[in-house]
Design brief:
- The chain has 7 helices and 6 strands.
- The protein is α/β, with parallel strands linked by helices.
- A 6-stranded parallel β-sheet has the order 3-2-1-4-5-6, sandwiched between helices.
- The longest helix has 15 residues.
- The N and C termini lie close together (about 5 Å).
């Protein structure tokens, strides 16, 4: 493995399977979107938007489906009522990241309260030098570009010595490419392979062998 000084990891579908967040946990947010929809989205588009809430941040869902401001506001308020009353588990290969040299960072997009709730439940917060949650009006891509750049500047890192690992080609992979960092798409179950990443792996074990 090349001598990388830092590795930036994504959270959802990288560290743990996001679909283990049950419908019951997400129900407050999904219900808030349904209640505030009115006639803005057709029934079909509404169901597609609700399904996307499990895949991308709520702000990106709102942009993609042209939510009204009230729909977004009601969804954001509902996040504070969400609770996870069961144990989440990282992927079985998660322990491998502790064996890989370099400073570890966790960067994720989504509602700050909910992302922190997941991180705390998983018990992984002490495995990273710093954890960043992007939660503003910027898209996930734009937000992560800014965060990645700030990490590079703060730690005086050469971009060629920074690796970005995640599943989403339009978010963390695109942000890493924008900054000329090495990008690695992890092909968890259900993730479609994208040619935009520099490397592809199916397990963290493979990170040790990247050239």
């Amino acid at each position: 493995m090349r001598n990388y000084k830092a590795i930036i990891y994504d959270l959802d579908n990288t560290m743990f399977p996001a679909d283990t967040i049950t419908m019951e946990v997400a129900q407050p947010v999904l219900n808030a979107i349904r209640r505030s929809n009115g006639d803005i989205l057709s029934p079909q588009l509404l169901e597609e938007a609700l399904a996307d809430c499990y895949k991308i941040s709520i702000r990106d869902v709102a942009k993609k489906y042209c939510f009204s401001q009230n729909m977004l506001d009601e969804a954001l308020k509902a996040f504070s009522t969400m609770q996870i009353d069961y144990q989440l588990h990282p992927y079985s290969d998660y322990h491998c990241i502790r064996q890989i040299p370099g400073i570890r960072f966790l960067v994720t997009s989504g509602n700050t309260y909910f992302q922190n709730l997941k991180i705390s439940n998983l018990g992984i917060q002490n495995d990273f030098q710093e954890i960043y949650i992007h939660d503003d009006e910027d898209s996930s891509f734009e937000g992560k570009v800014k965060i990645f750049q700030s990490i590079q500047d703060k730690y005086h890192l050469n971009k060629q010595r920074v690796m970005v690992v995640g599943d989403n080609p339009s978010s963390e992979i695109a942000a890493g490419n924008k900054l000329k960092m090495t990008t690695v798409q992890i092909l968890r179950e259900g993730v479609l392979k994208s040619d935009s990443a520099n490397f592809h792996i199916s397990s963290f074990i493979e990170l040790k062998h990247l050239k």
